[in-house]
Design brief:
Oligomer: homodimer
Shape of chain A: elongated
Helix content of chain A: 25-40%
Structural class of chain A: alpha/beta
Number of strands of chain A: 12
Strand content of chain A: 15-25%
Distance between the termini of chain A: 23 Å
Radius of gyration of chain A: 19 Å
Largest sheet of chain A: 5 strands, parallel
Strand order of the largest sheet of chain A: 2-1-3-4-5
Largest interface: A-B, 24 and 25 residues
DNA sequence: CTCGGGCCTGAGAACGTGCTGAGGACGCCG
DNA sequence: CGGCGTCCTCAGCACGTTCTCAGGCCCGAG
């Protein structure tokens, strides 16, 4: 799941990014209204978290523009509660849900999940492929009942691969979802991490499909 | 889902009743401590929302009594934020979650849902993980039958962690529930308190999951 | 067989996260 | 008032993680 966070306040943006990544989302951050609009137009995001107060272009204007251009990305709006703008304004302009600052992180998460649930089925508690098991909640991976310790990046990569076992997944897609990197990023980093995983999980668990990508053996 | 609201202030009680009914809950209201205790004892409620300041019997006493009688109904506690009672007290006495007035309705709803999702069918009187035991009612912790003295904050933190042993819990979630802090709060305070707990409970009881959070070893 | 491009991997630099000790603010109690 | 305990902030450090890079390997095409 890819999220776009549009927030100019650096601390809050960083906190959101870290928190949501910990929940397994790929998170991009835009710091200004125009940058956010651009990103929303071009990137394949599953939802956007949008501050109202933004330099360059307000959150309201941003959503209105987006909707006028026929983009129906789910939008969760954040705003300071001290008057001026209120909730009705937020919903009027085309946002799907609305939260006033200061808000609690769990509420944001709950609202976000509700937003994403439209169409997206709830994931299973534990992913299993062959003798490999991955438990997202416990952040645990076992291979033939033996625990395997993975770094955050390794875990994210395996997590992504295990959701589509047997299917070939391109490096670009992996860069996009696991690293949420730009197109210019060298794909070598994927190769490096596939190497790390192979060392920990066994040589032939991850198959290379030359010129295309990688496949998790079923 | 049946809820019991124990709140003496008529306006708030009515607002809660109306709001929660609109969400599809069946809601009963009790106006005094003793009435609330009676209702909680006899009715098959799925959760209770409980004010601290009550005529006849305080919310704290009510929960303590209930727990002493082996009732494990999930309790969401409400309290005025202006001192006297504080959050640690609330968590200490056996409540499952805690909200300071004034609170937003959506926050209450989110917390309530989380509480119900977690469910609390037959929770033991004392939480036990490994050789660690924590008694919420008595506010006591023992490790291998030796008593460990914790400060209020340390206790609240351990209490929260022990309700989901083996699961990774993010710093943000801990900040949210144990500190009632906003997103901008520096997560370092969590690290500090995990450090304190480690010193008192043993080094490897609390596992760090880098970039994600902490996990209580099972 | 030879060549070229894609892939793999070891070394090490750069970075970030988490841990800890020192110490200040505050409230409580003698 | 002074001592004490708790809560929290801060800065420096240590170490694991992430990433870059270069050289070599392998595979498929010609």
């Amino acid at each position: 799941m890819r999220l776009l966070v549009v927030e100019d306040e650096a601390r809050l943006a960083a906190a959101l990014q870290r928190g949501l990544r910990a929940e397994g989302f790929a998170v991009d951050v835009a710091r200004t209204g125009p940058a956010g609009l651009d990103a929303a137009r071009h990137g394949g995001y599953d939802a956007m978290i949008l501050d109202v107060m933004l330099p360059g272009l307000s959150g309201y204007e941003l959503v209105r523009t987006l909707r006028a251009e026929q983009h129906w990305l789910p939008v969760l709006m954040l705003s300071a509660k001290d008057g001026e703008y209120d909730q009705a304004d937020g919903l009027d302009c085309g946002a799907d849900d609305y939260l006033t600052k200061p808000f609690s992180y769990v509420v944001l998460l709950a609202r976000l999940r509700a937003l994403l649930r439209r169409g997206a089925p709830e994931r299973p508690a534990v992913l299993a492929v062959g003798d490999l098991r991955l438990d997202p909640a416990r952040r645990r991976v076992t291979r033939a009942d033996a625990e395997v310790t993975l770094t955050a990046r390794e875990f994210a990569l395996l997590n992504y691969l295990m959701r589509r076992p047997g299917q070939v997944i391109s490096k670009i897609e992996l860069l996009d979802h696991v690293w949420n990197a730009s197109l210019e990023t060298a794909p070598n980093i994927v190769e490096v991490y596939v190497g790390y995983l192979r060392r920990k999980l066994g040589r032939d668990r991850l198959e290379t499909v030359r010129g295309v990508g990688y496949r998790l053996a079923m």
